Amino acid sequence: MDARRLKRLLASVQRGEVSLEAALGQLKVLPFEDIGAAKVDHHRALRKGFAEVVLCQGKTPEQVGLVFKALARGSQTVLGTRATREAYEQVISQGVKADYRELARAIVANPPKTRPRLGPVLVITAGTGDQGVAEEAVLTAELMGAKVERLYDVGVAGIHRLLAHRDLVEKAKVLIVVAGMEGALPSVVGGLVGKPIIGLPTSVGYGASLGGIAPLLTMLNSCAPNVSVVNIDNGFGAGFVAGLIARK
Amino acid sequence: MDARRLKRLLASVQRGEVSLEAALGQLKVLPFEDIGAAKVDHHRALRKGFAEVVLCQGKTPEQVGLVFKALARGSQTVLGTRATREAYEQVISQGVKADYRELARAIVANPPKTRPRLGPVLVITAGTGDQGVAEEAVLTAELMGAKVERLYDVGVAGIHRLLAHRDLVEKAKVLIVVAGMEGALPSVVGGLVGKPIIGLPTSVGYGASLGGIAPLLTMLNSCAPNVSVVNIDNGFGAGFVAGLIARK
Amino acid sequence: MDARRLKRLLASVQRGEVSLEAALGQLKVLPFEDIGAAKVDHHRALRKGFAEVVLCQGKTPEQVGLVFKALARGSQTVLGTRATREAYEQVISQGVKADYRELARAIVANPPKTRPRLGPVLVITAGTGDQGVAEEAVLTAELMGAKVERLYDVGVAGIHRLLAHRDLVEKAKVLIVVAGMEGALPSVVGGLVGKPIIGLPTSVGYGASLGGIAPLLTMLNSCAPNVSVVNIDNGFGAGFVAGLIARK
Amino acid sequence: MDARRLKRLLASVQRGEVSLEAALGQLKVLPFEDIGAAKVDHHRALRKGFAEVVLCQGKTPEQVGLVFKALARGSQTVLGTRATREAYEQVISQGVKADYRELARAIVANPPKTRPRLGPVLVITAGTGDQGVAEEAVLTAELMGAKVERLYDVGVAGIHRLLAHRDLVEKAKVLIVVAGMEGALPSVVGGLVGKPIIGLPTSVGYGASLGGIAPLLTMLNSCAPNVSVVNIDNGFGAGFVAGLIARK
Amino acid sequence: MDARRLKRLLASVQRGEVSLEAALGQLKVLPFEDIGAAKVDHHRALRKGFAEVVLCQGKTPEQVGLVFKALARGSQTVLGTRATREAYEQVISQGVKADYRELARAIVANPPKTRPRLGPVLVITAGTGDQGVAEEAVLTAELMGAKVERLYDVGVAGIHRLLAHRDLVEKAKVLIVVAGMEGALPSVVGGLVGKPIIGLPTSVGYGASLGGIAPLLTMLNSCAPNVSVVNIDNGFGAGFVAGLIARK
Amino acid sequence: MDARRLKRLLASVQRGEVSLEAALGQLKVLPFEDIGAAKVDHHRALRKGFAEVVLCQGKTPEQVGLVFKALARGSQTVLGTRATREAYEQVISQGVKADYRELARAIVANPPKTRPRLGPVLVITAGTGDQGVAEEAVLTAELMGAKVERLYDVGVAGIHRLLAHRDLVEKAKVLIVVAGMEGALPSVVGGLVGKPIIGLPTSVGYGASLGGIAPLLTMLNSCAPNVSVVNIDNGFGAGFVAGLIARK
Amino acid sequence: MDARRLKRLLASVQRGEVSLEAALGQLKVLPFEDIGAAKVDHHRALRKGFAEVVLCQGKTPEQVGLVFKALARGSQTVLGTRATREAYEQVISQGVKADYRELARAIVANPPKTRPRLGPVLVITAGTGDQGVAEEAVLTAELMGAKVERLYDVGVAGIHRLLAHRDLVEKAKVLIVVAGMEGALPSVVGGLVGKPIIGLPTSVGYGASLGGIAPLLTMLNSCAPNVSVVNIDNGFGAGFVAGLIARK
Amino acid sequence: MDARRLKRLLASVQRGEVSLEAALGQLKVLPFEDIGAAKVDHHRALRKGFAEVVLCQGKTPEQVGLVFKALARGSQTVLGTRATREAYEQVISQGVKADYRELARAIVANPPKTRPRLGPVLVITAGTGDQGVAEEAVLTAELMGAKVERLYDVGVAGIHRLLAHRDLVEKAKVLIVVAGMEGALPSVVGGLVGKPIIGLPTSVGYGASLGGIAPLLTMLNSCAPNVSVVNIDNGFGAGFVAGLIARK
User: Fold this and answer.
1) Are B66 and B94 in contact (CB under 8 A)?
2) Do the interacting molecules here have an ipTM over 0.95?
3) Which residues in chain E touch residue B27, judged by CB atoms under 8 angstroms apart?
4) Phi and psi (nearest 5°) for H62?
């Protein structure tokens, strides 16, 4: 489209319909818009098969409803994260067909119809409290086309539960390891496999967990060199990075 | 080997040479050792083509020398990180053939002979002070078989320098973005490409940079969802994760 | 007034009505009151064309109503910041004519009638969540006589959106750059123009954003030397400083 | 130059010497380089009359010497900050004519010949320990063309010393207020004048000053709305911002 | 059970019903499950006389009800910590016989029938606000079979109240010392007796107590070498460790 | 009483009614109780003219009511701090005659009848938000027998308001200086007078005030050597220390 | 002197030698200088019997020597804190008669000749490492005219050592309690006596003592209401405040 | 001794040699001394078989030498922690027979002659850098009479190494688990055994390990309820607590 616009301009110059000076003037302002457009295109290309993403936290249910109405045209997948049920109801009331994933606190409109087949991505959690954040990661990775498997509630204080599922662990191409409190699980998993691991700290805990700072520090200091880390409770980010790696 | 040992035991049971009870007793203690052995093997397999790694910081030059002597037998690649020149000289004096990479503060013995061809990995730095940490990442990724390109000194306050090399940025399969001070570069790069980005904060800066905490927080809060983060100054970790992703 | 009082005292001395000792005694206590008065005057002079400012946070709606009633006499402009709608309703019920700016959470009584023409000041935001704080800055700068332009939602992860509006950026005399999460935008803008930039961090974000500490640190460590910073969510302060600079 | 290059390309298209497709191909890669080039130009324009800046901290004396040799050609002013005397001696030994400002820890080559006449900028310090950082700010503002006055050692615990120099305070167009320990001085000065004030916290102090975090927080929380803040010990940044404001 | 399964497999090999290769294949995956099972057994053995533990915080009352229904079969003791009364009512409505300990915020089903006789454990608190956390510790230690005595409200600012009960202090085998605010009590008690002391910091306090960080730091820095520490408000952990030590 | 008990025991020994061994046995356990009793007496002596103090925060209104009923017997003054109106109503409903001081959030039963005449103590505040904490300090100092004067709303950004009341400042024997946000006021006051100053930081502020940590750090780093500091919002402590000093 | 100058001016007005307007003009600028002068006088009065104080840290030995030479004229006492022996030698070499107090790291010139008789002030330390800071406090209080007694090495883990010296504790008028590590001693002492206590935290300790932050927090959170606190290692401040209180 | 003194006093009363009043007077001051003495006795009893402990850090080699000379009389064991070789040499030069344990940085004079037989205590380390701190713990526990076993270098990223030594783990009565960096090992070990575990964080690591704060937080947040924690690098404390538990 932008390429077409550029081509049209050049053709006009070629045909003598537009003067050199006028073309120059247009080109001086155009490139940035072109970059913009190109970036958007590229951006979209890069996210092919993926959704527009709406961070619902900090928006009123009404705003979420309107944003979904605007974005969910055609078959464009739209993912709303950190969404309340109230926001979901506003989306529905705007005539948008969408599902609400309770645990993941997510709204999904127009999910892709092709079955996910990249990866697989394995999402491991330490405790039951980490499940919501984990499900946000699962959903995001699935929307990016990855097949996702779950291995939940295998915290380090019961390491045998993890060891009992080594097959799952070993066949994954990339792993997301979710943990609050002491956040030690990514290190243990990182020692078991030679795959990239996304450490996803959660705010589960109390006192000296400092709202997730403790597991975040733990993961950053991991002695397993295959661990990189995302923000506290950032299930979307972890799922996105895992989806990108699985895609390769 | 362990499989062989297991097989031998089973064969003895089959032949009636070992009683059920005795075999049971041996198996009760064996598995862990087996796992250990298996893990080591697997571990090694997983790191095939990669080096044994020695963190030299916190060891005396003499200790580094002895560790290298022990590990650098045959053609095993050995990488020593955070190494002083004194440590390197001890390695040499132990009769080990090794190079010292000044900038990366690394010792390498028996580097692999095959040319790196995975990736490419692109390592971008914000400022000149970030170069040492970046070179540690470059070296690590190369030892893992990745072809690495450099794009140095393209900080966010001169964003045009980054934009002028978009071809490099776009052809990379995975990127390591190194920055101290405000640590904003990974977000900017993350907005330009749809590839996994490893944010590598450095302790370059003063005052409110808090020894690297400031850029670390910046990267963790990145609004670009394709950024995951490693510890401050952890060039080895960034290079290792990038190498793993490139390998796929 | 104070000058008059001083003059009267001196005249009494001149006329011999007041002894040297008595005058000396009075002068020993007088000066501070004079300074006080002078300061107040000066203070007012300095803020000429600007509003009395009421921080409504921490006051009950009733208190806000009474304060506005006391201050909004004559044509004196009064600005109430961090104000709830309830506080506004109390102001109205006190018979004060005032507007409520929903987004900026501000009450304004007796806005100046002259059109703002200083500046222009450009207010840039990284994300939609930063808009409320930005609007507080816009309103403050406008009340100080500055013409304000907005460039919203141009975060660093989509740098092309910023580059597409370089004309706006370049014609500004001073810029306020508002960002939460990683807070990297002021550095990028700071690299594009040679004008003073007020970095305004917001508490938008979660986890490792630490309630705005992360973007605050980012801005303080900015590698762009034209960035100075105000407190988290301090839209009023940013607007005030920008208004002062524009005024010159 | 870039405009010329663009024009040449368009002319070639007009003349039919370059096909539409080829021109399109060139334009697709050209703009970014153009932006880059334009940015550099603009950048330089924006800093006209100012120096190239070299952060010497973290560079060896030899590196500083070579960088100065490369930059100090013709009459280009070069400012080296956080420089040791050893670095200065290397600069000299490279044949560069330069001065060393002991207190400011700065090297200056080719200082501008015109007398500074913008401003004036007033630099106020709380204690004698803040002087070095203050002098870095003074030097930077002077190199930007500002006339700078000093009012040193007027900490808040002796407020009368400040009040005794109100004339200096009131005639300044912009003020830099430097303080370590409790960092309260910018608030006091901010209450005296209606001019922009740059708060410059220093690492002077011990214990709970936390290396300058205490005065930094004090300044960020200033109840005087005309105070904005730069990083701890960042004399260069404070001088630069003050110079920009004075320039208007 | 697992041992039986292993034995069956070995017997099949012995009888020639299972080939060496097949047995090897099974054993390769089996051991971990065995470990798992063994661990569970061992785990249970280790906790003999103790309860299943449910952290109720972060679970809905309904979830707590269902978890208790599942766990409280037979005579298995179940302890629910950080439980609201609402959660307790759901437990009851599921037909589970259980008590609610208001102060300890705990639900207990099937408490052991044998009288606690290990220890004794002495639980000391500094202030009245620490009582809830202390009671959680008391209950936990009692469920583990320890006899527990209480010495409440003997803060360091009234050291005589502590000294007046030295008999209680001296006959304890292990002590839990609970304190918020400045958290100094464990050090004082630690100087009085030669027994292991568990420091249990609480979030009681305000301002610079930082939600319990202050007493936590105090206890970690204790000059009494017999003090070890658990997380803020972690009554369960303190009671568990004390119970383990008493058990010896 | 305890002295009497001791004496009785000794008399029994003297009369031969109690054997040496038996007396020894009693004395071995007695002393601590004696110390306890003596301490309590002394304690009370030391606080003569002062109130029993109840920290109401963290207690239910019913508990506060009962505690007051127990303590407010005879003419004993009782002070309840951080008390809600609900707690006050419970105190009343228990038949205790008491007043509620709204601003100070305090309940007072049986205030002393003698007029305060020690001191005077001067309580200075920086802003209107600091008034509640200041009033807690005022009330406490008054209950200890000190005459208290107020100088409110004289923050450092309007230093002339403070200077205009130097007479008040100079006649005080001890000063409490209350400030939130940047907390600079104690330093300024400390430079004006040579009396002990209690710095009382408050949690008034937002963002980088970190709930009062910023003014706390400011006061601890004060360059005025006559400033000592109490906890954030600890009006009671400041009033108590000031009362002790005034008492001398 | 200033009073004389004022009187002269008034006399000139009285004699008609100076016009009303001229006198008014002079008075407009005079007062601040007067205040300044008055403040200095008052300041000096307030410190009568006390020393000029020089913070030697951050000054070169040469600078310290010169400052002492300038200040130690006549019989003016001069106290140099945080002084090295090198600085002391420079003071001597400038011809100033002075002593060096090794432990207190202090230089004293012209100590007062009258015997200290205010107070007494009692300085208590928790451990041997706190002695240097304590001695700085002792020296300061003595220079202010207070009789100082020492009670060293009576940490809370050996509370009996403190109790054995209750006579010393009870006869003090004001106490300085010095402690590093957990910093609990001021609370314990605060519970024993009804006198003002200055808590003086030190940086003695390691790990979680965070350079003195841990004992600082402990003291700020003290449940003993008679404790106020100064900065970490601030022996001078503690001695100064104690001296002021003793002086009353 | 004290009991004897008490008895003598009582006998004098009985014999009429001491009046009631005089005895009362003596008893009023005696008890504290008695407590003191009793405490010391008890203290010593409690530590029977254990050493006097000298923290050498912060003392000069000469001071360490003198302290050892004073304490190491007779057969009293003396342990000097955090001791340099220089300090050791001073001890020797004072004529004290002592050993220097290089790794543990400890000096031991008069070690007990009986073979340790309590426990066993198992000391586990995560990495080679943790060895020094671990050896301090080993030595302390041994001096208290415990048999100590070592299991070094079994970090969580190679969990199989730990699992391979389950026999050692299971036969221990109490375990010390030493780890820096992410500090996850105590949680993993805590899940394997039902014994008390002392978590001992070390300052091994860099960047976000924050000098040991990261592993400290990890251990405090451990999901294994049998873990309690001591200060960073506090090998002595960990060994002491373990020794006390083993002793039971």
Assistant:
1) yes
2) no
3) 6, 10, 27, 31
4) -65, -45
| Last residue of one domain, picked from the residues F109, F136, F158 | F109
Q: Are A187 and A227 found together in one domain?
A: yes
D with E: touching (≥3 Cβ pairs within 8 Å) = no
Q: Is the dihedral of CA E190, E193, E194, E200 positive or negative?
A: negative
Average pLDDT, chain H: 82
Of F39, F230, F232, the CB nearest to G228: F230
Determine the residue of chain D that is closest to A32 in CA distance: D31
pLDDT above 90: residue B81? yes
Choose, out of E43, E217, E228, the residue to mutate when testing the contact with H (most H CBs < 10 Å).
Answer: E228
Domain span holding position B212: 118-247
pLDDT, residue D141, reads 94
| Same structural domain, C92 and C213 | no
Tens digit of pLDDT for each residue in E178-202?
999 989 999 999 988 889 999 999 9
| pLDDT at B6 exceeding the cut of 90 | no
Between F234 and F16, the more confident residue is: F234
| Contact at CB, F163 and C32, closer than 8 angstroms | yes
Q: Which of the listed residues A86, A109, A132 is the one where a domain comes to its end?
A: A109
Rounded to the nearest angstrom, the minimum Cα separation between D116 and chain A is: 37
* Subunit contact F10:H32, Cβ cutoff 8 A: no
Q: How confident is the model at residue F22 (pLDDT cuts 50, 70, 90)?
A: low
**Hey, are the CB atoms on H232 and G161 less than 8 Å from each other?**
no
**Which subunits sit against D, judged by 3+ Cβ pairs under 8 A?**
A, B, C, F, G
- Do B99 and B193 belong together in one domain? no
- Average pLDDT estimate for B179-188: 92
H74 with H187, same domain: the answer is: no
In a domain, C128, yes or no: yes
CA distances from B97 to B47, B91, B144, E181, H155 (A): 22, 8, 20, 60, 30
D87 and D161 belong to one structural domain: no
Q: What angle do CA H204, H207, H209 make, to 5 degrees?
A: 50
Identify the segments of chain G with pLDDT beneath 50.
Answer: 1-2, 28-49
Tokens 């002269």, located at residue: G8
Nearest by CB to B223, from C127, C188, C191: name it: C127
What is the per-residue pLDDT for D100? 96
Which chain A residues have a beta carbon less than 8 Å from that of B35?
163
Preferred mutation among F55, F203, F236 to probe E, highest tally of E CBs within 10 A: F55
In chain C, alpha helices (H): 2-14, 20-46, 61-71, 85-93, 131-143, 159-163, 166-171, 185-192, 213-220, 235-247
Compute φ and ψ for C18, nearest 5 degrees: -125, 130
The DSSP bridge pattern shows strands G98-101 and F227-229 to be unpaired
Please report where in the chains the tokens 């410059």 appear, as a residue: D200
Residue A19 lies in a domain: no
Q: List the single best residue of H32, H136, H228, H229 to mutate versus E (max E Cβ within 10 A).
A: H228
Contacts of G39 in chain D (CB under 8 A): 158, 160
Contacts of G191 (CB under 8 A, 6+ apart): E155, E156, E157, E158, E159, G224
Q: How many domains does chain F have?
A: 2
The DSSP code for E165 is: T
pLDDT, residue A6, reads 62
Identify all chain D residues contacting A4, using CB atoms and an 8 Å cutoff. none
What whole-number distance in Å separates Cα of residue B101 and Cα of residue B81? 10
F130 and F240 fall within a common domain:
yes
Q: What is the pLDDT of residue A39?
A: 28
| Alpha carbon distance A159, A180 (integer Å) | 16
Residue G179 covered by a domain: yes
The verdict on residue C22 lying in a domain is no
**In CATH, what number is assigned to the domain containing residue E227?**
3.40.50.1970
